Amino acid sequence: MPNTHATTADIVALEKSYWDAVKQKDGSKTAKLSAETSLVTGARGIMKISKDKMGAMTEDGDWTLNSYEFEDIEVSTPAPDIAIIVYTVRQKVNIGGKAQELRAADSSTWIRSSNGWECHAHSETFLT
């Protein structure tokens, strides 16, 4: 593994690749980008989700992510193999056939290992 800190652009690209995989309902990609076990917080509370379950959750359900846009992005790299990204996101989604526009504050913690960069934690808080 390189002993260099990732750039802000590197981490933003990782986060966008995750969102793009969700948008495409590509469970194999979200599983690949997820840690063996990820911690997630959001409207449903807290969850500990396996890599395989994350992939299945991406593909299942009566929802579609139509578009997203990041704003107010901040990245911290406290160590060469750890990166934390926070941002607000505007999302256009369909849930149960109902179109919605949502705005949220999100954060993700990425850790680089021999498997590459993996998301170990993600949090989303909806904003009004």
From TrEMBL:
SUPFAM superfamilies: NTF2-like. It holds the Pfam family DUF4440. Residues 11-117 form the DUF4440 domain. InterPro entries: DUF4440 (IPR027843), NTF2-like_dom_sf (IPR032710). This is Nuclear transport factor 2 family protein.
